[in-house]
Amino acid sequence: MISALDIYGPFGLRLIWGGLQTCLGDSFSRGVWHRQRGRCQARVMDDHRMPRKLPTRLLNICISSFCKLHGLDKAEAVLIDGIRLGVLPNVVTYNTLVAAYCRFVGIDAGYSVVHRMQVAGIRPNVITYNSLLAGASRQGQASISLDLFEEMLKLGISPNLCSYNTLMHCFFRFGKPDEAYRVFHDIILSGLRPDPTSFNTLINGLCKNGYVDNALMLYRNLKRHQCQLELVTYNILIDGMCKVGRLKTARWILHELGTSGYVPDAITYTTIMKCCFRLRKFEEASEIFSEMKSRGYTFDGFAYCTVMGAFVKTGELRRAVDVAKAMLKSGIKLDIVFYNTLMNIYCKEGKVDAAFALLNEIEEKGLECNDYSYTISINGLCKARNIEGAQRHLQYLCS
DNA sequence: TTAGGGTTAG
Description:
Elements: H1 4-8, H2 12-24, E1 31-36, E2 39-44, H3 55-68, H4 72-84, H5 91-104, H6 107-119, H7 126-138, H8 142-154, H9 161-173, H10 177-189, H11 196-208, H12 212-224, H13 231-243, H14 247-259, H15 266-278, H16 282-294, H17 301-314, H18 317-330, H19 336-348, H20 352-364, H21 371-383, H22 387-398
Antiparallel strand pairs: 1-2
Helix pairs in contact: 2-3, 2-4, 3-4, 3-5, 5-6, 5-7, 6-7, 7-8, 7-9, 8-9, 9-10, 9-11, 10-11, 11-12, 11-13, 13-14, 13-15, 14-15, 15-16, 15-17, 17-18, 17-19, 18-19, 19-20, 19-21, 20-21, 21-22
The protein binds one DNA strand of 10 nucleotides through helix 3, helix 5, helix 7, helix 9 and helix 11.
Keywords: Repeat
Protein name: Pentatricopeptide repeat-containing protein
Pfam family, one: PPR_1
């Protein structure tokens, strides 16, 4: 039987393992974090089960796992440990850190890792830049995205489909549909083949920017060319149609979804049902609900809050309260969206005290208020003509 | 072992 010592020499893995143990605390002995289906799980490994892989790869797995758990400091500690033990980081190591810093700290922090990798003599590649592009997109820096794209080209790094898709998403997200559409054309001009991500980004971007008919046209073209669409593509389109009140078209897409071999999911039904409620088509909503039930889907918190919100929007506060009661009765875990919606109902009914009591309940339950909670509460005070109270509340929130 | 997008609630 091969032991870790045979594979990695006298220290290597054992010490990295030790470093990991230090980072993870005492609860795991020689534990390594493995990513499985997007989640990180701890697994204890014995010497004879240790993977026969290069130490740098192991180092990268450890760093990646910590990054995924938001443990950037621990990831850095593992890197230092690795270097100390002579395990040299490679481009994957730094790319992992660039992506994590961009996601959890910001584009500047990501860029500083790029400098570190250059100092270490490692050249950034297309993945490095794609992470930076995604970071710029998340921060709403469309101009930085373009600069990054040019910088990439200057460095002789060819953008790939992921780069184009990210840039397209960035433009759509920040209300620049013309530029986004140009990026889509650039994909074709560069000889790349758009993938489902490209089409989903494009259709969603068109819908969100008010071009639902163009999105529909694109969908028809894709169907004509027998492109394989994903369930989520249909859901995007259905949502786009529902948002502009085109329930009939949404239902037609629902039908097409079925004939394409897909089964609508809870999101599909919730989206259409919300539209029915908004349009006050209660009977139709009820039919959708029955169909949903017959397929075995039950209402989750998202569905309850969707319907509640729809009633609030149509001003039917009593109905909204009924849904809130049903959700309470169902035993589903109450989240901040539920509380915000209920707070909104109370404010609209002029029961500002009751709304503020909910703020305390949120805190007691260990939930965190968000922007909506504050906007709703301040708005409630203003609507009740308690401007002084609103100012005091705002000052309290800012303090 | 590293990168992208997309669907429902307030």
